[in-house]
Description:
Mean pLDDT: 90
Number of domains: 1
Structural class: alpha/beta
Amino acid sequence: MHVPTTSYVVCASQRSGTTMLCRALTDTRIAGRPDEYFLAVDERELPGWRCWEDGPFGRAHDVRDREHYLEIVYDLGSTPNGIFGAKLMWNNIAWAVAKFQEMPRFEGLDRPAVFHAAFPDLHVVHVTRRDRVRQAVSWARMAQDGVWVVSDDEPARPTRSPQYDFDLISGLEGLIVEGERGWRELFDELGLTPYEVLYEELLTEDGYRRSVLGVLEHLGLDSSGMKTFPPPRTHRQSDELNEAWVVRYISERRAGSGPR
């Protein structure tokens, strides 16, 4: 099995700019190809999906079992210099760790030991968003209309019309807060200091460049040989509907119907 020499995990909650960051890191050609290789089950998309080997990456590469899946993923997510990248969302962590522990070579390992065994020479990149309300609103909308990424090659094709839902937004805001706390607890367990990336900075030209170069430096990579700097490959999705939901949610929360 091809095993990476250095690994990193982009750690976040949904709607924090991780796709923009991961695609930029992929386009550097020296920082692995981070993606959500360890997604939780979603039988709405693939009936019979029990674990990663049954999911989109597994089916695309004719994976035999979970060990074979990990072998394929190490290859998919690595660049020739041995750097492997992956992306994990907080609400997938408990499930992902449990699925690793079902494999013989991870059996009996606790959570930090699983991470260190699965991701050799592990580094962590923590992506957060200063405005949690807008993050929760974006998550609530995308969870309903199914449009998670928009780019030149991926036009918005909503599967249904999203509807404002105070309780949904409030619950997702709570998950975001839980995720930020949970990631920091996990970083302490791992004995690692994350490189911090802020969504609001990623949206600016200088901040985008600074964030990508910062991750490369965090990984000990020399970016001086890059002939061109990769431009962003995703488009911001927030629009008037998002802002209307934000205003309504904040108003209702102030009126006393929101979380205490």
